[in-house]
């Protein structure tokens, strides 16, 4: 038995029968990290001793006959913008290099309460700003399928950890595609829930009106179990709401009576032909398996990327204003010749990376006097229009299907010096964030020997529909539980 290939259900069955102990499973995953992560660099911090102690405590509970939680003994990786009390939480930024979280994020606490074991904190683009995991202040994560390629971003470390069997599941955050795009690049399943479905308490904010936390997993059922655990209202986050709940039966319904929309203008110039081919094959496969596929239009969706970078940079400039080098992280001393403004300017220049500085400056510009109405307020108005366009589309179809990313994972350094080209990596994922919709990416095949992801987008708070569609496709395609080639 290869422990690291077991699903959550299989793992818990093995625990229940006594075939496996939590300590043995956690040790197996920690061994993977020890032997592989020097090449992949998925983790910024590995909590080995803490994880083993937690595993021992869970085994003790099982021996005493205590009822295990939904994620009992599941090895989890946590993106490093999620707080874990007593551990470093850096958001992959030098300005937070020495920040120790004084509390635990709601999502992480819910995993712990359900019996999950946190293996460590994963690498990411600094403050979640990036699409390749190359903007980290500490290291560049590699794609386990090809170490010369990026894992995607900003949750690249989380996706790479799951793909390389260094975690069974992981948490990431998604502001414009930061869960789904790396899941696509690494051949995994990645979910962005509806905004407000999952608490953001304990998430280091990038763009507060768009950020959302979700799972990365090897299959749809595992992603559902993590989602089911972390979703729900939280008094610490007033944007969370009580919404429709559903059980795992939604994953068994198949495509019957499901109407799937395909955007007429779903493809963009320069899109990889291999990705286009896999999307067409997926469409045909769904039609052959009882799905009704309908062409639809969402006229203003093509404006999403431009709107996104106005809203995001505006909120970034506000959210990152708190990092002055005094209250968080670096804690350097004043030079005798410096006043407070000089000190803060120096610390932010030293502590924030190039992409973070770029977005702060762009956001300050779009919010400045004379420009806020021209850019920011207009972007907010168009955001509402895009949401209405999707509402109209969902009167005709249940879910919308299309590519997750326009290409497979690109090579390290290929787009790093060209931010505009890098931003286009999110062209298919951003609309769901702008319209506050749930979306899930899953593997649909390979092009150029690299995974290709397809994406289902659903109406607000109808995660049941996108899980139904994703599980149905996973079942008929036979593409499930993808793992990376041997490192």
From TrEMBL:
The keyword Lipid metabolism does not apply. Allows the formation of correctly charged Gln-tRNA(Gln) through the transamidation of misacylated Glu-tRNA(Gln) in organisms which lack glutaminyl-tRNA synthetase. The reaction takes place in the presence of glutamine and ATP through an activated gamma-phospho-Glu-tRNA(Gln). Its EC number is 6.3.5.7. Belongs to the amidase family. GatA subfamily. It catalyses: L-glutamyl-tRNA(Gln) + L-glutamine + ATP + H2O = L-glutaminyl-tRNA(Gln) + L-glutamate + ADP + phosphate + H(+). Pfam families: Amidase. Keywords: ATP-binding, Ligase, Nucleotide-binding, Protein biosynthesis, Transferase. It comes from the Bacteria. Heterotrimer of A, B and C subunits. The lineage of its organism: Bacteria, Candidatus Kerfeldiibacteriota. This is Glutamyl-tRNA(Gln) amidotransferase subunit A. The keyword Transferase applies. InterPro entries: Amidase (IPR000120), Amidase_CS (IPR020556), Amidase_dom (IPR023631), AS_sf (IPR036928), GatA (IPR004412). One of its GO terms (molecular function) is ATP binding. The active site is at residues 79, 154, 178.
